[in-house]
Amino acid sequence: MIHSSPARFALLIFTALILVWTALLSLPIASSSGTMTPLADALFTAVSAICVTGLSTVDMSTHWSLFGEIVVLSGLQIGGIGVLTLASILGLTVTRRLGLRQRLLAAGDTNPMRMGRDVSESQAVGLGEIGGLLGAVALSVVVIEGILTLLITPHLMFAAGYDFPHALWNGFYLSASAFTNTGFVPLAGGLEPFATDVYLLTVLAVGVFLGAIGFPVIFALYRYVIGSGWRSHKRLGLHAKLTLTTTLIFVVFGWLAIAALEWNNQSTFGPQNFGQTMFSSVYMSIMTRSGGLGIIDPLDMNGSTLLVMDMLMFVGGGSASTAGGIKVTTIAVLFLAAWAEARGYKDVQAFGRSIPNEVLRVSVSILIWGATIVLASTVTIMHMTGESLDIVLFEVISAFGTCGLSSDLSAQLPDAGKYVLAATMWAGRVGTVTLAAAIAATNRSRLFRLPEERPIVG
Predict the structure, then answer these.
(1) Cα dihedral angle (165, 169, 174, 175), rounded to 10 degrees?
(2) Which carries the bigger pLDDT value, residue 257 or residue 121?
(3) Is 411 helix (H, G, I), strand (E, B) or coil?
């Protein structure tokens, strides 16, 4: 299966991991009450952890025991890094070498377009650089989460009154939840007591942003900084430029839109001064990248604001990142294609490079399949619950984009609804490209072309 269909192998391993985590969370030892967690809740939490989503049907601060919290924390770490990437890192650590098969698996995990097809090596990360990328993944996880933990732990001790063991554990939990863009909060009352804590929220926002831009971008930035110093200069690649540019555009757009739409809402930003409003809005904009560590109840927001956040969550973060959504590079390629068509260009161009038509076709496919999954899940859950469109759509897109911002609908769903939302999280995390590659047969080449005829579009 590894040779014939890497995508199917990846889905098999990913699904098997979810089933194992479901079994572990169902054990009496995993709950603080010492009783078995219902299957629907255990499965939902396992999917939410492995898919780094952050939605929950139980109170994450009180329901799980220490064993359960360790299971959840290890699940979100594995899910954030990537199953095949983690396996490749462990294999490299043990054998001190990285064979072609391991390189191909890791390359497919970081770029699903490489699964089940012959691709050009003009990639953001070539096969020869996979070893360096894996090292960057391992190093960035350890360093970034370690720094975040060191910044959060003392603050929890002095500002919130936690003793050192609890502050250290909760600090590490929050740092992992932020960097993996999961959104689980182990603190009683969530982040509501820290809604005006600029220091803690800034640290969490930085962690979410770094996780959302993706490991290939972090690797590219590292090479670029080193290359600009005492080594020879290295160019920052197209993928990194597109990811950073589009991410910043969406963050600024979300910042201004949320601030403008919620300015006079007395349930959210109305009582705040100008500085607090601008900070809270940019924080919430960053959280829509897939962070999910919200400080405002979506039920208190205007419907227009929820729609803007729906769009931001649907786009998500960078490719090969801990974030979800259809990815910022996907939407960037689609906008660039529209711009090229409007200007009469034959090729899609950006930053002095042309983008192959294959990438454009995949981007269109991702958008269509993503919208189809969201539509099907929304209709199904609306029929089950009778809830309004804005609330259900917000929850479904948060699940598909593995964001974790919630209107508390997840906890109110019947078991069938929980399974539907869990399937939505699963599909959003593995990605529509991987799903399509897993469903499709092996690549077929035809020795003929059909006659061309152009339908009328537009």
Answers:
(1) 100
(2) 257
(3) helix
Return the domain boundaries, the chain: 6-101+133-441
How far, rounded to the nearest angstrom, does the alpha carbon of residue 410 sit from its chain's CA centroid?
19
Cα four-point dihedral sign 134, 140, 141, 142: positive
Residues 6+ apart with CB under 8 A from 119: 113
Is the Cβ–Cβ distance between 243 and 328 less than 8 Å? yes
* Residue 4, token pair as written in the block: 């014939």
| Residues ≥6 apart with Cβ < 8 Å to 363 | 330, 331, 333, 334, 337
CB 179 within 8 A of CB 207: yes
Distance CA 217, CA 242 (A): 10
| 3 state DSSP class of 117 | coil
What confidence tens digit (pLDDT) does each residue in 298-310 have? 999 999 999 999 9
427, 426, 410, 437: which is closest to 41 by C-alpha? Answer: 410
pTM listed for this prediction = 0.88
Q: In whole angstroms, what is the distance from residue 166 CA to residue 156 CA?
A: 9
pLDDT at residue 219, rounded to an integer: 83
Task: Please state the separation of Cα 383 from the chain's center in Å.
Answer: 27
Q: Which long-range contacts (CB under 8 A, 24 or more apart) does 333-341 make?
A: 333/242, 333/359, 333/360, 333/363, 334/360, 334/363, 334/364, 334/367, 337/363
